[in-house]
Amino acid sequence: MKTSTSERKHGIQWKAQNQLDDLDFADDLALLSHTHEQIQMKSSHIAAVSGSVGLSIHKGKTKVLKYDTENSNPITLDGKTLEDVESFTYLESIIDKQGGSDAEVKTRIGKARAGFLQLKNIWNSK
């Protein structure tokens, strides 16, 4: 995967001299770009490089999250339009198109509440 993402530098500015091009863990990959054209090029390049070694991208599982943009043009792979989403979960964290943490905080509070409710009977027993 490093070979397929390192050749083109179209990520987001991370630090003064560093750029973040993608987030990857095991077989999950989140591509990052500032423009529609850059993400389309990255996606097509990843598909081509992956295909050359016998791997394929599951287009039904591949999603596009557009942050702070009015561009409504679709991202396509092999002629198939990828689904635009309002949010997605990456490594148990919710990322949404507003860039905030509200959805993440609500989800974590809900999980904590469920955990406490499971313990309620134990705490109330005599």
- Termini gap: 57 Å
Helix content: 25-40%
Order of helices and strands: HEEEEHEEEEEEH
- Helix tally equals 3
Count of all domains: 2
* Anisotropy-based shape: elongated
- Largest sheet features: 2 strands, antiparallel
Task: Quickly give the structural class.
Answer: alpha+beta
* Mean of pLDDT: 84
**How much of the sequence is in beta strands?**
15-25%
Low-confidence stretches: none
Number of strands: 10
Order the strands across the largest sheet as they lie in space: 1-2
Counting copies of identical and different chains, the oligomeric state is single chain
If you had to describe this structure to a student in words, what would you say it looks like?
With 126 residues, the protein is α+β, with helices and mostly antiparallel strands. The protein folds into two domains: 1-85, no CATH class; 87-126. Helices cover 36% and strands 25% of the residues. The strands form five sheets. A two-stranded antiparallel sheet has the order 1-2. The mean pLDDT is 84. It comes from Schistosoma curassoni. This is Reverse transcriptase domain-containing protein.
